C-alpha cells in the first residue's frame, strides 16, 4: 500500500500542467502514488500527462486514467478516489502547484496527530501576487471533533474553507463513504463534501503548513465564466441544507448552513455583469426558489442579522416569489 495517494484531475490545462507536474516530481517518493486523471481534455494535456506518467514512474508510483467524456471536477476526483490505494489521500488541481517536499511534511503531520484528517493553509497566486490564506480555525496541532468546528453560525469557520486540496485524509474516511463528491457537480463540489466531512468524521486537526499554490484568475476556470454550469452551486447547497436538516443537531447547525447559502446567493447576485443575460435571469429565478425551500424560521433569523445590503437583495427575491404565488 502506498503511504500517500495524490489525486490530480486535469482538463484543458496545457499552459499550467507543466508547473503542476514538475512540482509533483519535486514531491515524489517511492511510497507515494500519483493518480493523474484527464477529464477528456481537448488540448495537448493528454500528451503531456502520458510523458509525465512515464517520467514520474522512476521516482513514484503513478496511475494515469483518461475519461472518454468530460464529467467535471467532482467526477474526475471520484475516478481518482476509486483507483487510489494509499493509506492517506489528498488532492491537487491540474493548474495548481506545490512547494518542494510539502507532501512529506503533510504525511508526517497526520502520522504524528493520528486523526481522521488534517487541514492546512495555502498560498493564493494571482498573476505575480502571492497571498497566504489560513484555515479559519484558531487552534493548531490540536485534535478535536470536526463537528465542533462548524459553528458559530455568524462567523467564518472550517466548513467555509472548502478546499479539498488543503489537507490530507485517512483511508478510513474513504471506506466510510466520506471522501467521494456528488457526481456531476460542475461547481461548489467542495461544499457538500466539507460539510459531510465535518458532520461525520470523528477527529481532525489544523496545522500551519504552507505548500499548495492555488492559481486564481485562470481564464478557463468556472469561477471566471458566467455560464450555466456555475448555477450548480444551488444544487450543491440544496444538498448541504437537506443533509444537515437530517442531522441529530439540525437545530444548531441549520442556521449556519442557511446563512452560508444566503451569502453565496447574494454574492452571485451582486456580480450579475459576469453572467450571460439568459443565465442571469435563471440565476434570479433559481435563487428565489432556493430561498423558498430553505427552513423559513432559520432564514428569517439570518435576514434579520445579515448586513443591510445583502439582506435587502435577498428579501426582494423572497417577495418576488410570494407576490407571484399571490397573483396565481
Account of the 3D structure:
The protein is an alpha/beta fold and 328 residues long. It is 43% helix and 16% strand. The protein contains eleven helices and eleven strands. It has helices spanning 17-25, 45-56, 73-83, 102-113, 171-175, 190-200, 232-245, 250-270, 277-293, 296-305, 308-327; strands spanning 4-10, 32-38, 61-66, 88-91, 97-98, 117-120, 122-126, 129-133, 167-170, 204-207, 212-216. The strands form two sheets. Strands 3-2-1-4-9-6-10 form a seven-stranded mixed beta sheet, with helices on both faces. Helix 6 runs parallel beside helix 7 (232-245), helix 8 (250-270) packs across helix 10 and helix 10 (296-305) runs antiparallel to helix 11 (308-327). The mean pLDDT is 94.
